[in-house]
Amino acid sequence: MVFNIFTNKNQLIYSPSIRISLLYSFNLLNFLLYKMASFHSYTLSISYFLIFSILFIPSHGAFVEEISDILTIKRSEKTSHLHFYFHDIVSGKNPSSIKVISPGGDGIYGFGKTFIFDDALTVGPNASSKVIGIAQGIYSIASQSELALLMVLTFEFIEGKYDGSSISILGRNSVPRDVREMPIVGGTGLFRFARGYALAHTFKFDINSGDATVEYNVFVQHY
């Protein structure tokens, strides 16, 4: 093949055969550059995928992260004593406690009866005294041999620095006893990580209506 190249005023003029060869070479170069760019992009994508996969792999196959003691804020634990009255109203047109389960043949003590409640917590024993919180939860008669309740409840406070904080209780409440002790199993807000115990004493019980006022002394350890 003969390549005829002519120079005319510093301008190269190519023969048709050379033009075809140059065009082919140019297209081949573009193709190679495209492949290299694609490979580079693919490599970057794989790299990013591996990096993010490593970052989000849960430790020990579970979504658990152990926080080092160095990173935690050291705070001193303190014990608070809370005293208030719990008003459980089952009578009238607007009771704060209602029966939701009443199995047949429930025996002398009403075994299996279950109530859900939204009771006021007050500073004094009278229902008209200042409300400092609410008690919400469920209690069931869980014994066939005595009037003993299984209590699942939360004290949600709405007054002072404890406004918005709560304490959760889960325990057995043997009503005939003068003082019943139930454990604190947790809390929220200022009572986060709470533990302790609550002492319940029946201050007043109306045998006709079933309404009760219970005095609570709560001792809670928290940060």
TrEMBL record:
The chain crosses the membrane at residues 12-33, 39-57. Keywords: Apoplast, Membrane, Secreted, Transmembrane, Transmembrane helix. It holds the Pfam family Dirigent. InterPro entries: Allene_oxi_cyc_Dirigent, Dirigent. Belongs to the plant dirigent protein family. Dirigent proteins impart stereoselectivity on the phenoxy radical-coupling reaction, yielding optically active lignans from two molecules of coniferyl alcohol in the biosynthesis of lignans, flavonolignans, and alkaloids and thus plays a central role in plant secondary metabolism. This is Dirigent protein. The gene is DIR21_4.
